[in-house]
Design brief:
The two termini are 19 Å apart. Helix 1 (6-26) packs antiparallel against helix 2 (37-54), helix 1 runs antiparallel to helix 4 (84-104) and helix 2 (37-54) runs antiparallel to helix 3. It is elongated, with a radius of gyration of 13 Å. The protein contains four helices and no strands. By secondary structure, the protein is mostly helical.
Length: 105
């Protein structure tokens, strides 16, 4: 693994896990916004971004930027809920977006 991606990969991994937890806990519940739909998209974005960074893809920066945008979108929706899992998800999404933007810069 390219060391320059280490913190972004770790942030993506945590975000993916926290989004998966949020998604599972929100399953079957009513939502006033795009949570848990945003979690599905964020999970996919983080997974692909991890793969691109781990493989030192020439497109890692572009994937990181898109991942950051999706993470912000997910955080915007999840942080509107009072559930602990949504708050945790939003926090992980914000951290992931921050780390991915460092890669994209």
């Amino acid at each position: 693994m390219n060391i320059k991606y280490k913190s972004a990969i770790e942030a993506c991994q945590k975000c993916l896990i926290d989004c998966q937890d949020c998604l599972m806990q929100m399953a079957g519940q009513e939502s006033m916004n795009d949570c848990p739909k945003c979690c599905v998209q964020c999970i996919d974005a983080c997974h692909i971004c991890i793969k691109m960074m781990a493989g030192d893809s020439a497109f890692a920066k572009q994937y990181a930027l898109l991942c950051a945008e999706l993470c912000d979108y997910c955080a915007d929706h999840c942080e509107q809920h009072d559930h602990d899992h949504c708050k945790t998800c939003a926090e992980s999404c914000r951290k992931c977006a921050e780390e991915c933007r460092k890669i994209a810069a």
